[in-house]
Amino acid sequence: MVDISVENPDAPRRGSVAVIAVTLFLNVTGFTLILPVIPFLVGRYVPPDRVGLYVGLIVSVFALCAFAAAPVLGALSDRFGRRPVLLLSLIGSAIGYVIFGMGGALWVLFLGRIVDGLTAGNISTIFAYIADTHAPAERGRIYGLLGAVAGFGFMFGPVAGGFLGALSPTMPLFVAAAITVLCAFWVYIALPESVARDKPPGPWQWRQLNPLGQLAGVLRYANLRVPFFAAFCFFFAGAMLQSNLSVYLKDVLQFGTTSIGWTLFGVGVMDIVSQGLLTRVLLPRLGSRMLTRLGLAINAVGFAMIASLVFVPRIEFLAASIFVFTLGDGLFQPAMSEIIANAAPPDAQGRVQGANQAQQSLARMLGPLAPAILSPMSISAPYWVGGAVAIVGMAALWIRQKATR
Q1: Average pLDDT, the chain
Q2: Residue 197: beta bridge partners?
Q3: Cβ–Cβ < 8 Å for 88, 121
Q4: DSSP characters for 103-150?
Q5: pTM as predicted
Q6: What is the DSSP annotation of 39-100?
Q7: 396 phi and psi, to 5 degrees?
Q8: Is the torsion defined by CA of 242, 246, 248, 249 positive or negative?
Q9: What are the coiled-coil residue ranges (predicted)?
Q10: CA neighbor of 209 nearest in space, from 5, 18, 70, 320
Q11: Mean pLDDT within 201-210
Q12: Position 220 confidence tier, pLDDT thresholds 50, 70, 90
């Protein structure tokens, strides 16, 4: 049995937030460094008209592996501690980047993303660590702060990756690997363990290796079902946008890679504003339940505005659309993270956060398939449908709120 209560006097506190924040920044920066060059690396091995297909498959393979691994890594972090699992995840990512950068054949690129996906427990472990070390009332604020830190990484990474990719398409991969190794070293020397043991761990249950079983087990907690459903709607809709936005902007506004990179830079800026500033102000006043519904509503409006670019193909309207969409995104995520963390029993934080990461990976695996079906009907259809999915998630939260009054 483990003791991960925030009342544990040995649990690390304030200083660890800085360590976690630096870890998250380096991790997100490393991940986003490679985004601008993936199509060029894939293009070495497939005809030009097949690049989009294989990029989508590589993204889906990573998400599938992350879906399979996340609950297992979460259970391992409950059993053996957050720190060793975080180190394993970071080293796995570094190895995956190196394999992808070495290339030589298309299957090697897939292997690199498979290795990275199977060790993709970084974010869920970080969130479980915060839940271990902070009282429920503090978690939303910390998650908002970490969201802003991730926004800095998302803002910096693609731009730097674009510049490095101009020198060599493989350079961002090796720089990302170096950054991730640096991050692992930082965790090793600076991050204390948050799981304190008062008894030897119980016997390992092999059913914990089944991601669907883990997810179903977590959903036995009745107060987690609707939040998980709403989060799935949010990430499914977001994956539709992320997988299709560059193609959409190229077709509607004739954007090139540089313009798309600066658009992603704007997304990072808004993440910082919404998660780092607005959430800190609004969460104590409105509460996490209200903020999740408000975030999804604003998110749906942002989807509708992006879809309307076909009628108003202007950069100013794109900027307004990205502002609204990212505002909703930034309000929803830290508030929902607080709801899920507070609903989980103290000794199940790793499993719950792992299951949450698994359902996000499932959404990110299925979401990119929707634009492939919808875009031939209408280029803007994925964004109208994305807005509708966000509204479904908001409605589920609203009905739950009414039922529990």
Answers
A1: 80
A2: 2
A3: yes
A4: -SSHHHHHHHHHHHHHT--HHHHHHHHHHHHS-HHHHHHHHHHHHHHH
A5: 0.70
A6: HHHHTTTS-GGGHHHHHHHHHHHHHHHHHHHHHHHHHHHHHH-HHHHHHHHHHHHHHHHHHH
A7: -60, -40
A8: positive
A9: none
A10: 70
A11: 59
A12: confident
d(CA 375, CA 363): 19
Tokens of 176: 């990302």
Question: What are the distances in angstroms from CA 107 to CA 11, 25, 61, 100, 350?
Answer: 44, 30, 12, 10, 33
pLDDT per position as a tens digit, 309-343: 999 999 999 999 999 998 898 889 888 888 888 87
Number of domains, the chain: 1
Per the listing, tokens 């919808």 go with 374
> Distance (Å, rounded) from C-alpha 97 to C-alpha 109?
9
Per the listing, tokens 């483990």 go with 2
Q: What are phi and psi of 3, to 5 degrees?
A: -110, 110
Let me know: does 230 contact 396? Beta carbons within 8 Å.
yes
331/276 Cα distance (integer angstroms):
10
DSSP 404: T
Angle of helix 122-133 versus helix 14-33 axis, rounded to 10: 170
Smallest CA-to-CA distance from 150 within 337, 385, 5, 363 is with 337
Mean pLDDT of 139-157: 78
Structure tokens at 178: 């170096």
Which CB contacts under 8 angstroms, 24+ apart, belong to 97-103? 97/30, 97/34, 97/173, 97/174, 97/176, 97/177, 97/180, 98/173, 98/174, 98/177, 100/34, 100/41, 100/173, 101/170, 101/173, 101/174, 101/177, 102/170, 103/41, 103/44, 103/45, 103/170
The DSSP H or E segment spanning 183 is helix 171-190
What does 361-382 look like in DSSP terms, one character per residue? Answer: HHHHHHTTHHHHHHTTT-TTHH
Q: Which pLDDT score, from 0 to 100, does residue 304 have?
A: 96
Q: Where are the beta strands (DSSP E) in 229-341?
A: none
Distance (Å, rounded) from C-alpha 18 to C-alpha 191? 10
Confidence grade of residue 203 (pLDDT, cut at 50, 70, 90): low
What CATH number is attached to the domain comprising 249?
A: 1.20.1250.20
